[in-house]
Amino acid sequence: MESYAHSSSRLGSDTKADLKIVLSRAFDAGRRDGADGFYISGKPTLSGNIPMVMSFVVASGKPSVGRYPIWGRAGLLISYSADPFDSMRHAGIYAAVNTVRLRARHRIRPLDAAR
Prior knowledge:
Blueprint (H helix, E strand, L loop, with lengths): L3 H8 L4 H17 L5 E3 L3 H4 L2 H11 L3 E3 L2 H6 L3 E2 L4 H23 L9
Parallel strand pairs: 1-2, 2-3
Helix pairs in contact: 1-2, 2-4
């Protein structure tokens, strides 16, 4: 899949038909060369066409990994990047807990109660 960017630029346009041709060639080459699995990169063209990419992954019958959590949720074996939504959730919880602690410690009233 790493060579996808080079193949795609040679086609001239990134239509779904072109992407399907490139994916077909990439997965066929992987099967022909005896690849043990596939790495799905984080290229926007691939991430914008997850159902199409996953159809090739499933048809290959090979284990596949991806960079972003969206690929793990789509069905790949693993992804190894941080999940931005989960990170935001943790940051929100941290901010809420600290706000409650500060209010309790300094007896800060909510803005509406100060009037």
